[in-house]
Specification:
The complex is a heterodimer of chains A (about 300) and B (about 325). By secondary structure, chain A is mostly helical. In chain A, about 70% of the residues lie in helices and about 0% in strands. Chain A has a two-stranded antiparallel sheet. In chain A, helix 10 runs antiparallel to helix 12. Chain B folds into two domains: about 220 residues, Rossmann fold, CATH 3.40.50.300; about 80 residues, Alpha-Beta Plaits, CATH 3.30.70. Chain B is built from twelve helices and 14 strands. Chain B starts with 14 loop residues before the first strand and ends with a helix. Chain B is elongated. The chains are: A mainly alpha (about 300), B alpha/beta (about 325). At the A-B interface, strand 2, helix 1, helix 6 and helix 7 of A face helix 1, helix 2, helix 3, helix 4 and helix 6 of B.
Chain lengths: ~300, ~325
Amino acid sequence: MPLSGQHPAGRAAAAIHDLGYKRYLGNRRPQSTRWRVLVKNVVTTSWRGWWRMKMWVIGCAVTTVAIGVPMYISRDRIFEELVRRGMTVRWSDALLPLSFRFFPWFAFILAAAGAAGAVARDLRAGAFEFYFSRPVRPIDYVLGKVVGSAMVVSTALLAGPFLLSLFRVGLARDLDEVLPALALVPRMLLVGMLGSVAYAVVALAFSSMSTRPRITTAMWAAFYLLFGSIAEGLAFALRTPDLAAISLPRAVEGFAFGLFQVSVPPGFGRLTPGIAASYGALLAYTAVGLIVLQIRVKRAERAGLGGG
Amino acid sequence: MPPVVVASPHAPALLELRGVQKSYGNVHALVGVTAEIRGEVIGLLGPNGAGKSTLLKCMLGLTPHAGEARVLGLSAESESFRIRDRVGYMPEQDSYLADLTAVELCAFAAELSGLPRSEAMQRAHAALYYAGLEEKRYLKVEGYSTGMKQRVKLAQALVHDPELLFLDEPTNGLDPRAREEMLELILDLPQRRGCAIILSTHLLPDVDRICDQVVIMHRGNIRFHGTIEDLRRGGPVADARAHVYDVEIKSGEDEFAAVLARAGCEVERKPPRRLVVRLPEGTDSTLLFQQASAIDAQIRHLEPNQDSLEEAFMRVVGEA
C-alpha cells in the first residue's frame, strides 16, 4: 500500500511503498559457501545469450555426434581385422583422444565469450564494491568465477568427450570389451576437467588485466592463437615436440594422447607434446593464472570502497 | 505497525573506535580516531581526503589498521564477515553487474549475504518496490537513469535486512524531486525497518534535513561529534559562544550598539537592523533588555547566535 512519507510543506511527496516488512530471523548460509552463489551466477548469466554459450554448446553437440558416427562405423569387421593384424589401438578408442583436436576450439570460444571479459566487466561496472561490502573474500570471488567459468568451458571439453566415452562403452560387444572401455571414461574426465580449469583460469587471468573487456578478450585470443602458433612453429622448427605444450590446445591434446597412449608418427601432421610436458604446462598455466587472478582481485578489494 | 527504534544509552554503540590509525606510506589517513557513535541517522561529513572512506574500510574489515574498531558490538578485525552480514552499503559510484536486471541483482546480493534463494528473491522484490522501482525492476540495470541506479543501489544495500546502512552520497546526480524522494526514503528507513543510517555526503542541506547526529572528520580525525543543534551552537567552542546573541531592534541600532559597548559587550553590526552581541562574563540576556530599556529601544528579535550548518562545518574543518 503506498504510504505518504512525511515531508515539509511545499516539497514533493514521495510515495513510499511497503509490501510489509518483517525482520529476517532465519539462518544465513555459512560464509564458506558463498562462492557457490557466484558459481550459479556465472553459469546462469552465461546461459542467457545465444552467442555466449548456447550456440557453442550446440556446436559441441554436433561435434560429439560427428565423432560418434565414425566410432560406430569403426565397429565394422574391417577395423576389427586391423586390430587382429597388429594395430595397437582400436579406431573407436583412438577417436576419443583425437576428439581433443576439435573440442578445444569450442572451449576457446566459450572462454572468449565469457571468462575472458568477466573480471574486466566487473571492474568496469564497479562490481567489486558490490562484492566486497558483503561477506565475500577475494578467494570466494576467485573460486566462484573459476568454478563457474570452468563449468561453462566444460560443456565443450568435458561433456562431449564424456558422452563419447560412454558411447564407446555402449559399443562394446561383450563383457571383456566393456571393462577396458570403462577404463577410458575416467581418463576422458581427467583430461576434460584439467583442460576446462586451465582454459577458465587463463582466460580469467587475462580478464583481470584491464577494465576493458574487449581488450582482455583480444589478449586471450592473441595468447591462444598467436602465441600458441608461435610455440608450435618453434617446436616444429627445433624438432622439440614438448615445446608445443606451451600452446594450450596442444597441451590438452598431448595430455589426452599420452593418457590413451596414442602416438602420432613423425611427419604426420603437427607435433604433439609428451604427457609430462603437457601435464606440466596445464598445471603451470593454472597455477600462474590463479596467482595473477588472486593478486589482481585482492588489490581490487583493498582499493575497494568509497572512492578516494 | 513498523518497528520503532529507540536509542537506548545501554544499547551497544553503532560504532566504537579506540585509537584507530591507518597510514598509506607517509600519508596518515586516520590518526588515532576515538569515538562512540550512537543514533538513528548520522551524517558523516568531511572534506575530500578527511579519512571518511578509510574509516569505512576499517569498519568493514577491508583494510588492516591499528587500534580497535567495533561495529554493532562486533570487532572489525576478527568479525568483519559478521559485520558485513549486518551492514548494508550503498556506494557512491556505479556498482552493478553487467547483464543483470534489478531483481536479479538484488536477489544475488541477498544470497551473497547468506539468505536462502526463495527468501532472497522475495526480499529483492520488496526492496525494489520499496525503493520505488516497481515494474522497472525487470529491466537491466546498465540501462537505468542515474536516479533509478541510485534507487537500485539503495535496494541492494537493504535487501539482506541490515541493522546499519552506510550511504555514500545517496543523492548525487539526482534532480530536486528525485533527491527529495530519496531523502524521504532514507528518513523512513529507521522507523519502518529499524535500521540506523550513516550518511556520508558533501551536501550539507541533506544532512540538515535528515540527520540527528553529525560526525565531522578532518585530516584523519574526528573533529566534531554531536547533534546538529550542538554544532550550530558552536560545537567545540560552544561554551565560548553561549553568551552570543542575535538581536534585532525596531530602530536606533547605532545608539543601542554604543550603549552595549559601554556595558562591556562586543557588538558586531549585521545590516539592516541585526546585531551580534557577545555578553561579558557573568552576565546574561537580561543585560540586553536593561540596555534597550535605558534608551527606549524595542527588541523585536532575540535568540542565541547560531551558525548555518555550512558556517558551522567551515568553522570545524577550517583553519580558523
